[in-house]
Amino acid sequence: LVLTTPFDITTAYWTGVSLSISSQTGDPRSLMLSSDGLKLYLKGSTTTQLFEYSMSTAYDLSTAAYSSTIITPPIDYVTMSTLGNAADFGDLTTIRVYGSGIVSNSTRGLFGGGGNNPSAAVTNTIEYITIASEGNSIDFGDLSASAARTFTRACSSSTRGVFGGGYGLSPFPSTNIIDYVQISTLGNALDFGDLFTGRYGATAFASPVRAVEAGEDPPGTNIIDYVTIASKGNSVRFGALVERRRYPQGCSNSTRGLFAGGRAPTLVNTIDYVTIATEGDAIDFGDLTVDRMLL
Length: 295
Prior knowledge:
Blueprint: E1 2-3, E2 12-13, E3 28-33, E4 39-44, E5 49-55, E6 64-71, E7 74-77, E8 87-91, E9 101-104, E10 108-112, E11 115-116, E12 121-122, E13 125-130, E14 138-142, E15 153-156, E16 160-164, E17 177-182, E18 190-194, E19 203-206, E20 210-214, E21 223-228, E22 236-240, E23 249-252, E24 256-260, E25 270-275, E26 283-287
Antiparallel strand pairs: 1-2, 3-4, 4-5, 5-6, 7-8, 9-10, 10-13, 11-12, 13-14, 15-16, 16-17, 17-18, 19-20, 20-21, 21-22, 23-24, 24-25, 25-26
């Protein structure tokens, strides 16, 4: 379409120029032009993909050719009191395909670190959303000491978020860094202390007082350690998992925390638990319905 009068749709007419997009998507939903007219961006029904086309002549569609696919990481949401499918919330501003640490309180959700397959890059950025308002995430700050890493594990109280462990760029060294942010205050993360051992492939959960972490890749230890969220310092030995494993998943209420699944070295269906206020070894809780990890 060409408009003989700028921004006046009533003056539009069809020029017969077309662009084939069938190799990228059969279901286009929206498009956008760059300010210089040399890039066209098309979004299909798959919300994680944005297709980029380059034009050798500004605003001339006859010179357009497909150039790349950009991943736009989606954020979905559900209303917990209502059964149903997730709905689109917005997009992350940084590609994080896996391994972000996520913390929240009743107002904000934060995403820190993470990895990006196709480029195998890792990031140190932290971004946030306001949970009550749909929209794209906004820059919050960076993890401490420019520590770009993925498979960091995170948990929070109502005021403070804590990020621990993970690994960085090739040769993928694991780290024992713990850093923290005040969730209500934008800014870079600050040093909190160190984990009992450098690790990634762990899981974490928290009560309002303590943050607990366990698991490691490769599964060299069954150590559970913890920190008191309000007090900076190194982690302290809590106890041991029922079996050493990597990539379990954790969850908790204010009293009890569970570790479920993992690989040790094959997939397992183990669920074990601890009482967060009381140090000690984990106790068998039951089994998952199937063996799996990274729930």
